[in-house]
Amino acid sequence: MATLGNPQETIAVLQKYGFNFQKKFGQNFLIDTHVLDKIIAAAEIGPDDFVLEIGPGIGTMTQYLAEAAREVTAVEIDRNLIPILDDTLSEYSNVTVINEDILKVDIAALAREKNGGRPIKVVANLPYYITTPIIMGLFESDVPLSSITVMVQKEVADRMQTGPGSKDYGALSLAVQYYAKPYIVANVPPNCFMPRPAVGSAVIRLTRHEKKPVEVKDAKFMFKLIRASFNQRRKTLQNGLHNSGELQIPKEKVVKALEEMGLPASIRGEKLDLAQFARLADLLME
Asked: Residue 120's CB: how many other CB atoms inside 10 A?
C-alpha cells in the first residue's frame, strides 16, 4: 500500500499539515521510488527482520520498510512530524514511532525488547551534519547490529570506503572499516529530494564484521593515534603524534616503533592501513 515516494504525494501531505522544513534538522525528503526500492534491497530486509529507522520524516521509507520487515521502530526528533506519521503509517500495525533524539535512545534495550537481543538492521536517511556521530555511536555502543544502510553525503560515503593514499582517506575511513565492511549501493542526485540539497548523496551499506579485521590491545588508544595522525595531514606521523594535545608521544619513541615496523621515520599517517595502526598502537603502549 506504500503510496509516498513521489513528489505529488509528498507535496500533498506537507500541504495538508502546513509543514515547514526545519533547517536545524537538515530535512530533505526522498521523492524517488527507484532509490527507495534500492535501499530496501540493499538492506536485505526480510519478513523476519526488526528494523530501526532513524529520521523517518513523513514516513516515505517507513512504508516500504513496514511492507518488507516483521516490525519497524522509527525514531523522529521533530515533533511536528509526529501527527503526519500517525496519518501516513495508520495502515501499518507493525510500526512504532518514537519522538526522540536517536542519540538518547537506549538501542540495546530496544533490540532486547523487539528482537530478543538478536542483531538488528538500521536504515536511515540522516541529516548530514550528524551522520558520523550517529554511525560511530551505534558501532561503539556494542548494540547488536547486523548492518546500517544509510543515505549520506556522497563525499562522506567515499571517505568511508577508501583506503590509504587517497585524499579522502582519514580517521572516518579507519573507524568505519574497523567495525564494518562498507559498500556503496547507489549514488543519488539532488533532484531525488525535496527540498533539493546542495550536494550529491549516496546510499552506503555498512555490514558489521563478525570478527574485527585487526587485533589491537586498546582500540581507544589506537583511535587517539589515528585522530592525531590525521589532525595535521601534511605533517609526518612522528610530528603529528608529538604535537597532539591528547598524546604528546616523544618523537624518538615513534621513530623507534616505525623502525621496528620497517617504516621510514618520515612517513605520514595517511600511508598507514588499519593493521599498521593497530601494530603501532600496541608498540607505543609498551
From this structure: 23
Any idea where the domains of the chain sit in the sequence? 7-208, 219-285
Per residue in 24-55, pLDDT (tens digit) is 666 788 889 999 999 999 999 999 999 999 99
Task: Give the class (CATH, top level) of 219-285.
Answer: mainly alpha
Q: Which helix (H) or strand (E) holds 54?
A: strand 50-54
- Asked whether 108 and 143 are in contact (CB, 8 A), the reply is yes
The answer to whether 183 and 205 have CB atoms below 8 angstroms apart is yes
Sign of CA pseudo-dihedral 208, 210, 211, 216: positive
Q: In angstroms, rounded to a whole number, what is the distance separating the alpha carbons of residues 212 and 247?
A: 25
Mark out the alpha helices in the chain (DSSP H runs): 7-16, 33-42, 60-68, 82-88, 107-115, 131-140, 154-161, 171-179, 219-231, 237-243, 251-260, 274-285
Is 219-285 the same fold as 7-208? Answer: no
Second CATH level (architecture) for the domain 7-208 = 3-Layer(aba) Sandwich (3.40)
